[in-house]
Amino acid sequence: MNNNITMTLNVDDLILLALREDISSEDVSTNAVMPRAQKGEAQLICKQDGVLAGLFVFRRVFELLDQEIQVTFRYMDGDQVKKGDLIGTITGDIRAILSGERTALNYLQRMSGIATYTNSIASLLKGSKVKLLDTRKTTPNNRIFEKYAVKTGGGYNHRYNLSDGVLLKDNHIGAAGGVREAVQMAKQYAPFVRKIEVECETVEMVQEAVEAGADIIMLDNMSVEEMQKAIACISGRAEIEISGNVTRENIEHYISLGVDYISSGALTHSAPIMDISLKNLHAVSL
Known about the structure:
Elements: H1 5-22, H2 28-33, E1 39-46, E2 50-51, H3 55-65, E3 70-73, E4 80-81, E5 86-93, H4 94-122, E6 131-133, H5 143-152, E7 166-168, H6 170-176, H7 179-189, E8 196-200, H8 203-212, E9 216-220, H9 224-234, E10 239-243, E11 261-263, H10 266-269, E12 276-283
Parallel strand pairs: 6-11, 7-8, 8-9, 9-10, 10-11
Antiparallel strand pairs: 1-5, 1-12, 2-4, 3-5
Helix pairs in contact: 1-3, 3-4, 4-5, 6-7, 7-8, 8-9
């Protein structure tokens, strides 16, 4: 993650916002029991099996509170860990450890939960050509973290935001007056290097989108039978994405259809957190 330039350029401002949310003026509890600097050490312990994501963010929370703090890890993002594993240790001013603990764990637990859930679905697609995609159904101001977690878990990122690509959904089509009109307008407006994707809910919409020259057809909330008809209609003239209520429990129904992508909002909006704790904090000699 520390090699990801985009992440490095953006995380500090977002982390500082999260810290300011948690510490509006002072950490009253910590200041009450720790009135002066005292070096301490704590252990980061995994409490369930999973895939780690967000270790760099965890460390950065504490570095922004205390430049002298030291966080060392025994694992890397993307590693599988087991319940009871010691992930790492943090050493530094106890006041910074206490004040940053919740924010740091919130990031790490959330990101690792997404990576773990994504990995459980991506593993079902092994051996196929299908790529598992995320969506824009992310937590406000946390998209960069959540999409990184999807990639760490073995998934792929769909467009990052509205500036990143053309995706004509039902309301775009309604505003334009139809599928053909929407595609034509997108072709006239968007740079030629941008692919145009169209969300289709019926086989008739699929036919119209293909004939209008769409690059990617999204089959949205169709039955398997409808998807099969749509895929036959496309007949290799566009890439195909399946979307709509795709979860770990039903994704196997779609693998054999021969599509290029399966997108799932559940990767980010429904993944449970991974249980990780910062424990055994104790003072050490300076």
